[in-house]
Design a protein that fits this description.
alpha+beta, single chain, 30% strand, 13 helices
Length: 652
């Protein structure tokens, strides 16, 4: 049974201790480590991971790797969202109109290249009033075109005052016509996308939502999971057609009944989730807001018969926004809050689950992020995000997390910055993008070891532990890849190198060969990511760089081959492929021995392909000055027998 409001209020005194923990110490600007110094041994601190492979594995849930993809920001609308604007009859009104969303070829290519795993459509505030068909007034005149974001029903208070008006141009298109093609392309590339749909409860009636579901099914979309509107607890996202929780419940239940009836006729299974507010369980929120949102939760959950799960949106933000502090002005307290964001997230999700019965308390975390300072994305934000993501994955069973969607690709907590260079749109990963790519590429289609425990120093302040949840220096996700090889995804939240000892099936491994690849940051206030590539053979422990997120592939025993990160083929004889000169500043020779034909792929350390070619020559010569910037790359060669050879290349 769900807990009552008084019970939640009693629990707030425990939540307040987290704020007290974060406030310990002197509140001064701090660019270094904001916790007690970690005890070192030989210049590193010790950690141990114990894996029992006999306990088996569980397939990784790829739905935890979703990402909101939309072109809401002004720069994205201008650069990624240009396409012909058509009238109702399909005639071209403007040949190169901005604001056309997924209908843009540039936008489609962007999604293809950056592989978001799951797309939430439509997303954000516009999901509440998205028009999937033309909207006409009483005289039959078009008010809003199909596939439009135009919001026609602002929230109006009882006294007639407009609380919020989100009017946007009628010609702003979200891009549904191209959505089918985006999914087909992903399927063809062997990276199928999952679709999460948000229904418009306040903007469309029962029949319209039912026809919309049927229309998407007819278009080939597998619409199984649906959010029942977006953030209805915000008055600014409500409509004049529905202003109260009772009205929302009545319509949402009727829409669910209609879609379930249509799905049953087709032999399909569908699920629905309601928006829930986390703020009543957050002691840092104003009391009036906590009480208001608690009333919302109590009213919206009175009837549990029509939904299956909870939608939660949770952002952990510290001193951010236009009035936020500069990165180097953040206090120790603020940096600790960012690095401990997983604790805040856990408490919020735990609170939300208390609002309904156990059979209904599964979580869809479809918007979330960690940001701090005026810049939003800094080292502490990136590490806090990575650690939170790791925590969600490692605790998905306890918290019953079914889906996670990062917010967002080019919006809030942006994974990419965009600019036009020589007529081409260039997307550059941010630290958030680096984190997402490392986690996605190392975890998708893997299997989680059922028995894996990590021993790591606890982060303390003045000798005191976090009263809510232990915060450790190192966190680790342990998986088995498709090839059967072990892989670790490791986050080091400290300013010291971590030494990770591997204990497998009761034996401490003293001969470890590994490849470690990912990103790190020089400090908690830096913005720039630094690529990591480390290779070690026959060592007794894995070394994890300070302030880093790395994926580590391992083998055990002297001379045992290693699977390179994101590589599903065994490494063969290194002499089969020779690179010279290496390092190089201009010409690179790639010598292929015993191959009649080969595919050559050069990637950066984050896995992005920067060069690819097919060849039947035994020697390939490249002018690296024209194709590669200074840095470290991996050269992967696959021959006709599907053997793969991977070599590191350094370009000066």
């Amino acid at each position: 049974m769900k807990k009552n409001y008084l019970k939640v209020l009693e629990g707030r005194k425990f939540l307040l201790t987290l704020s007290a923990f974060c406030s310990l110490g002197i509140a001064k600007a701090q660019n270094d480590f904001p916790f007690d110094e970690i005890p070192l041994s030989g210049g590193t601190f010790n950690n141990t991971i114990t894996i029992n492979t006999n306990e088996g594995v569980t397939p990784f849930n790829n739905l935890l790797l979703g990402s909101n993809v939309d072109f809401n920001t002004s720069v994205a609308r201008l650069l990624l969202s240009r396409a012909p604007l058509l009238d109702a009859e399909g005639n071209v009104i403007t040949r190169n109109a901005a604001n056309q969303g997924f209908n843009s070829l540039e936008g489609q290519r962007f999604i293809e290249e950056n592989d978001p795993v799951a797309i939430r459509f439509p997303q954000g505030v516009f999901a509440n009033t998205y028009h999937w068909e033309r909207v006409l007034d009483d005289e039959g005149e078009e008010i809003a075109a199909a596939d439009s974001r135009h919001i026609i029903d602002p929230f109006i208070a009882a006294n007639g005052r407009v609380i919020s008006d989100h009017n946007s141009p009628v010609n702003v298109r979200i891009g549904y016509p191209a959505l089918r093609g985006i999914f087909d392309t992903a399927e063809d590339l062997g990276r199928p996308l999952n679709l999460l749909t948000v229904l418009s409860i306040i903007g469309n009636d029962v029949d319209s939502n039912g026809r919309r579901w049927s229309s998407m099914i007819a278009d080939g979309h597998d619409v199984r999971d649906m959010e029942l509107g977006n953030e209805f607890f915000f008055r600014s996202q409500r409509s004049g057609t529905i202003n109260t929780e009772a009205q929302w419940r009545t319509r949402a239940a009727a829409i669910v009944s209609e879609i379930k009836s249509r799905a049953s006729q087709l032999g399909r299974t569908v699920r629905f989730a309601i928006p829930i507010a986390y703020r009543p369980g957050d002691p840092l929120e104003p009391l009036s807001r906590r009480e208001s949102d608690q009333r919302f939760n109590d009213l919206i959950t009175q009837d549990e018969s029509f939904f299956d799960a909870l939608v939660v949106h949770r952002y952990v933000n510290v001193d951010r926004g236009d009035n936020g502090l500069e990165p180097n002005q953040l206090s120790d307290n603020s940096l600790r809050r960012l690095l401990s964001a997983s604790v805040t997230m856990d408490e919020s999700l735990t609170y939300c689950r208390t609002q309904v019965s156990e059979s209904k308390n599964s979580i869809w975390l479809t918007e979330w992020g960690v940001a701090g300072s005026r810049e939003d994305g800094i080292g502490a934000s990136f590490l806090g995000s990575a650690d939170t993501y790791s925590h969600l994955i490692r605790n998905q069973d306890r918290l019953e997390i079914e889906r996670v969607n990062w917010f967002s690709t080019v919006g809030l907590n942006s994974q990419f910055t965009l600019e036009r260079v020589n007529g081409q749109v260039v997307a550059t990963p941010t630290g958030y993008g680096d984190i997402y790519r490392v986690l996605r590429d190392n975890l998708r289609d893997s299997e989680l070891f059922n028995s894996a425990t990590v021993t790591s120093p606890e982060l303390t302040v003045n000798g005191q532990s976090n009263p809510l949840q232990e915060v450790n220096a190192l966190t680790v996700i342990s998986v088995r890849t498709e090839s059967g090889a072990p892989r670790l995804v490791i986050i080091n939240k400290t300013n010291r190198t971590g030494r990770l000892i591997v204990n497998r099936d009761g034996n401490t491994e003293n001969s470890i060969n590994y490849v470690s690849r990912g990103v790190r940051w020089e400090s908690l206030t830096t913005i720039q990511s630094i690529a990591v590539l480390e290779e070690e053979s026959d060592t007794d422990a894995i070394l994890v760089p300070p302030y880093s997120l790395v994926g580590v592939d391992m083998s055990f025993g002297v001379g045992a081959p290693i699977l390179s990160t994101n590589d599903n083929a065994n490494l063969d004889d290194d002499n089969a492929v020779v690179l010279f000169p290496n390092p190089t500043s201009s010409i690179l020779n790639i010598v292929l021995k015993g191959m009649n034909n080969a595919n050559i792929v050069i990637t950066d350390l984050l896995g992005k392909t920067v060069f690819e070619t097919e060849t039947n020559q035994t020697n390939v010569q490249l002018d690296t000055a024209n194709i590669l910037n200074a840095g470290v790359y991996l050269v992967s060669v696959t021959d006709g027998n599907n053997r793969r050879f991977v070599n590191k290349l350094v370009v000066n």
